[in-house]
Amino acid sequence: MSLNQQVLTLDLVRDISRQKNEPSWMLDSRLRALEIFHEKKIPSWSADLSGLDLSDITFYVKPIVPEQRSWQDVPVDIKKAFETLGIPQAEQKFLAGVGAQFESEVIYKSLKQEWSSQGVIFCSMETAVKEHSELVKKYFSTVIPPHDNIFAALNSAFWSGGSFVYIPPQVHVTLPLQAYFRINQQQMGQFERTLIIADVGSSVHYVEGCSAPVYSRASLHSAVVEIIALEGSKVQYTTIQNWASNIYNLVTKRAIAYRNAQVSWVDGNFGSAVTMKYPCVVLKEPGAQGQVLSLAVAGKNQHQDAGAKMIHLAPFTRSTIISKSISQQGGRASYRGLVKVIPSAHHVRSRVQCDALLMDTLSRSDTYPTLHVAAHDADIGHEASVSNVSDKQLEYLCSRGLTRQQALGLVTSGFVSAFIEQLPMEYAVEINRLISATMEGSIG
Fold first, then answer.
1. Angstrom distances, CA of residue 157 to CA of 33, 57, 135, 209
2. pTM of the prediction?
3. Average pLDDT of every residue of the chain
4. For tag attachment on the chain, is the N or C end more exposed, with fewer CB atoms within 10 Å?
């Protein structure tokens, strides 16, 4: 059964909007998106989505508690789930603000006084729709409209939770803002919506973590992230996703970078049955810069279909894509990317590098690069490599006193070093831990 044949009704959308007490313009936006969803088809070029049936998915779980500002007020069972991820220790030590979403709703949001006093807004999307309605209305769905793809339409109709971030002009948030998203029940659909607006000359680093336990039935994560980087601003969006093997992770993430703005996506993908994710930067005005640095680790029965898109719409723009993938125990990793340069975008420079590491003969790596270059003086480069971990490599390292598992860890750590170097120390440690856990038993 194809996904767009499911009966997703207007009444369900209206009920979600009613429970959130939304303004009429947001309900109208949802209803238009639902119509578009029913007109769309599942992409035939993508990973196998036949194991996902929307008739089994719960589209909205009403929150058991309202959003809390104090961690002490969060229910004990929910608190335990997030404390294993480092909340609130992370907030106390090195974060400017923290948000936590459990199922469909944000249950905790906190922003330090140092930043709120400067006009920084960090809240749930529900709060933003009510308290900052004009700002949300101005930018919502302008970067990723519902007709972009079937999953963007699905999210636009059923979105719940997510983060709203606004950084005022010339304000620099020097500590990360962080959000955690957790799916804690089977057959659950999580459709968070994140909107980040960096005003003129501002800067922010937003960090997102996602996780879910393993169940026998599939769940769906279909997020939308929109970033607006106004003139001279800098935005880094770091994602560390560690999904269980029953999750279909189908997300759309895109930024628009204006004059001399810089947008950087740092994207780590672990777990899931299928991941389809291609962070994009639209370089809209001269001097804009975009970077995507991604890591995908595919294990048994997993397909990581990830990549990046850079759209050069203005002259003197720059972009870099560095994609790393590791496949083991029969896993499959695919790079799917696009670099587009329109005719008027002269003096453009773009570099794409795709590196794949295969841990065994059962695993697979694919590269699907697309280059549409219409400008005559663009400087575009693309390179790709695939390498295998050989027994000779491991035997040599073992002869120097390492165990086989330590040798394997050394090889993989070296391979992903370019990715890890872009992370704060505490996240780099977590990535190394995830890689080590994933690699256990992959050889020998």
1. 5, 15, 20, 23
2. 0.85
3. 82
4. C
